[in-house]
Batch of 2 targets.
Target 1
Amino acid sequence: MHVYDKDIQMSRKKRVGMGYLHARQQNKAKTKSIIFRMMRQALLSTISGWKPSVSSVKEARILLVGPVGAGKSSFFNSINSAFKGYVSSQANTGTAGTSLTTQFRPYYIKPSSSVTHVPFILCDTMGLEDGVNTGLDVDFATILKGHIQDKYQFNPLMPIQPDSPHFHKSPGLKDKIHCVVFVIDISRVKLLSDKMIEKFVVFRKKANQLSIPQLVLLTKVDEACPLVAEDLKNVYQSHYINKMMQEVSFQLGVSLSVVVPVKNYYQELEIDPQTDILLLNAVVQMLRAAEGYFDDFYNPEERSE
Ligand SMILES: Nc1nc2c(ncn2[C@@H]2O[C@H](COP(=O)(O)OP(=O)(O)OP(=O)(O)O)[C@@H](O)[C@H]2O)c(=O)[nH]1
Ligand SMILES: [Mg+2]
């Protein structure tokens, strides 16, 4: 055989080998993608099948609070996107020095063809600032008790007045907050000022007094760790993410089991099943926490406080 033919034969062998490997990798990626889609669908079904154990309440009201720019509004947009099946941006997001969100905004998520019932409302709020009272600071307890209605404009100079058109005089159990979520940018956990931590401690005390369960949502995990930016499935293996989860649990005095990492949609044009899985898992944790709140009302008649 001519040397030249041999070369061709070798390269053919190589090519076949490489082709085989390539096909195997493609199959693996396909299987992975199918599994992620199934997991995403299972989470959507779990959420839409969830019902509060108190019949007078149809949806869990989840309150998002946290520093300016932490990703509260983006979290609502991301969850809305996960339910819609495409990236949507109903709430305004971005950076503006002070809080971009200045109103109290309870957001409903519309059912779609794949999800017939969405049993929660995400309540977006104004961002907290170091030392400065942004308005939410004075209205926090009033929100928890269900007195504040959609589109209330926070006022740092004074709390909501009972004669305000946004003041609900006699809220029922369905109007109260059933779970508080502290939203924090994971890269800023180490940079939280004493004043901000003090605010969280005060908020936690108020929520505890009303027996409202709390969760900590750590956002922007993609920015915090290159391994996670490369592949979101590394989120629970990342040493840095783990360290920050422990740090925030210590700083705020919450158990590690209520600290949930997520990545929001912030620049993507299409949804991604892996991002959805983290986001929807956060919602499942929130509903489980809210369930703890409703357990207090199980069997006996609804209590008004
Ligand atoms: N890389 C990355 N950026 C994010 C993520 N979530 C939010 N962002 C960005 O962070 C910035 C602030 O996000 P917002 O959702 O507006 O934050 P917010 O907490 O509502 O801010 P205020 O309403 O001003 O208090 C935006 O520019 C977002 O694009 C995330 O998970 N990863
Ligand atoms: Mg906002």
Target 2
Amino acid sequence: MDPTYVAHAHLHLFGSVLDPSRPVIDVGCGDGAQTAAIGQHFDRVIGVDVAPSAVERARKHHGAPGIEYEQLDLLKPEQAAALHERIGDAGLYVRTVLHAFTPEELTLAATSLAHLAGDTGGAFFYELAPASRDFIVGQLAGEGVPAEKFGFVFDRVPLPVAREENALQRELEKVGFEILSSAPIDYQGTVKAGGRHVNVPAFFVVARAGAAR
Ligand SMILES: C[S@@+](CC[C@H](N)C(=O)[O-])C[C@H]1O[C@@H](n2cnc3c(N)ncnc32)[C@H](O)[C@@H]1O
């Protein structure tokens, strides 16, 4: 599987939960590669990221008709509420964004996601598993690479935080999402060991807004 545009490959997992008549938000879109892939299947896709440099890069490299990018900080729920006010309920695609958040940050992010989804939005999460922290550190120890380096190749994000297996699902449920399905799935990133891609423990969650908040 080409990790660059993996959203294509995962369409069978999230395609049916994201309403094609609503905008799809690629939350924490990074360089926009997945945003562009999603844009091939949905009429309106908005990539949002806290980093202005990411938004700029995404606009430059992964712009297309129907695709927009803007800055949004998931840790500031008022920003998500303002975006929801402008565009209404949206479908959410979230790939490897939440793993480095502290418990308090995860709660804030879940509140933002609930604002964005509104009463009807579906959501797909493809996130590094809590076990990925030890896995990554172990891989790096085996390769003699300092752990921070892995953060560097992982788009400069910090290592995943240690948390319980179902922490994300529980946070989502607290803000009113219904979990429709969830399962382990490897994350294949850009890291190679011995010439082969490293598969990092990850998981996906398919959810739907709608429970009383
Ligand atoms: C590992 S990258 C993943 C990028 C993209 N989703 C992908 O799969 O290629 C994590 C992204 O989350 C963004 N991010 C981190 N904290 C954020 C926040 N508080 N609000 C919005 N985006 C955030 C980072 O700027 C970065 O672009």
